[in-house]
Amino acid sequence: MKEECILAHDVGTTSDKAILVNLSGEIVSSAQENYDVQYPKPTWAEQSVETLWRAVCKTTRETLKKAGVSPEDVCGISFSAQFPSTILLDKEGKPLRPCIIWLDGRAESQAEWLQRTLGIEFIYERTGQVVCSKSVISRILWLKENEPTIFNKASKIIDLKDYIEYRLTGNFVTDWSCASQSAFFDIRRKEWVEELCETIELSVDKLPELHSSIDVIGEITDEGAKEIGLKKGTPVIAGGGDNACVAVGAGSTREGGTHLCVSTSAWIGVSSEKFILDPKKRLFTICHIDPRKWLYNVGIDTAGNCLSWFINELGEGIIRRARERGVSPYRELDIEAEDADAGSMDLFFVPYLFGGRASVLDSDIRGGFIGLTLNHKRSHMARAILEGIAYHFRWLVEALETLGFKIEKLNMVGGGALSKIWSQIFADVISRPVDLLKYPLESGALGAAYTTAVGLKIIRDIEEVDDLVPKKMRITPNPANLTRYNRMYERFKALCLALTKFYQAT
């Protein structure tokens, strides 16, 4: 028998990544399967539930095969996943429609009705969430009003991670972190808010059973084992939403620990045992993987996808040179951005390509380049994108610090952490050291693996993980860029506030 391993998945927006981790915390093997997001209408974003399930099954088998590991050697499994997603299941547990994913913002009028009817303050006080078009509670109202036949057939309403775990165990459960972003979960009492459910005429019986992220929520059934390729009876640990799991995989679980994840979307998360409500409602508060803590998140929906948009729509030369050199188009974009000086010759990129949140709350704001001249080259545009997202995050760091958090450094993970220039820009703009980790792309899955280890009592306490996560290097701010970026940042804020008024008036 080989050494026992933990299997963990990060079911992301555009791919599922599976990793096999030994009990020393090293990644033994991994596999990835890509898939698409469907955008049937403006502001809509959906995915096929069956496609994601097949991806999980495929990567599981590939990961075990690469490592030469038997299913009997897997001692437990858990998941990190994009959230909040909304899946309707019938009485047989079959999906009634495609999954509405976190990016979907169709329920604007329903969110406004909830704000008027219950008040933003009431919902925020109970749930830690600012109800918006992307909240699960708003989507449920949208489904009731626009797809009543389908909605009335629904026996269960469940998140994406929890659907995958249902396929494995037959149990309808969710963890506190995923429940946190529904906007009808009591963030302190760890229970569904019946008043909110009653307001939208939702039976609590349709909601999954609640658990801590480190709970064992069941074992893999015979049917689940046959589909995914694992042993019947393998323990399944609840796991969590990607934000929560990344905090663990980034090694930032202790009090005040801060991580910056730059991927398709991007966010900053701060771990704390203190419960805080932001008077300006900039924070999205969720339950931590550590049952004693909360995780305070602020972010942006469009980060890495700003780069992919630029490459696909305006970067024909970038793609061609990347092919010629045998490198990723993102690496070629970095090379191009390095040709431009800090500040991109006074060119700004406003990164809200799918609306704003956090510091810029107006979901109607849109992105764009501001300040283009005939002297600007594509290299300036490439660097301006990287800088625009960094300006936004300096805004968020300042917001967190006004609430009493002290941000001393950032553990950076996600695809953005592979970019040396972007990591340096973040350090320069935010004026904080940025620590890069050994496994920046696997932080979500690695967080789920460490969560499994705690759930199985292989690791005694979540906080021990901070010492186990392997580090790579530290990037310190470049003093030569400080004055320039301070000036550009203040202008960026003024620009965004002006654009907010402009879009509100149109």
Observed structural traits:
alpha+beta
* Strand count: 24
How helix-rich are the residues, as a percent range? 25-40%
Residue-averaged pLDDT, rounded? Answer: 94
Rg over CA atoms:
22 Å
Low-pLDDT runs: none
C-alpha termini separation: 66 Å
Shape: globular
Largest sheet: number of strands, sense, barrel closure: 7 strands, mixed
Q: Label the structural class.
A: alpha+beta
What percentage of amino acids are in beta strands?
15-25%
- Enumerate how many helices there are, as a single number: 18
Q: How are strands sequenced across the largest beta sheet?
A: 18-19-17-16-22-23-24
What does this structure look like?
There is one protein chain. The chain has 506 residues and is of the alpha+beta class. It has 18 helices and 24 strands. Strands 18-19-17-16-22-23-24 form a seven-stranded mixed sheet, sandwiched between helices. Strands 3-2-1-5-15 form a five-stranded mixed sheet, with helices on both faces. β2 (15-22) and β3 form a beta hairpin.
Structure summarized in a few sentences:
39% of the residues lie in helices and 20% in strands. The chain is an alpha+beta fold and 506 residues long.
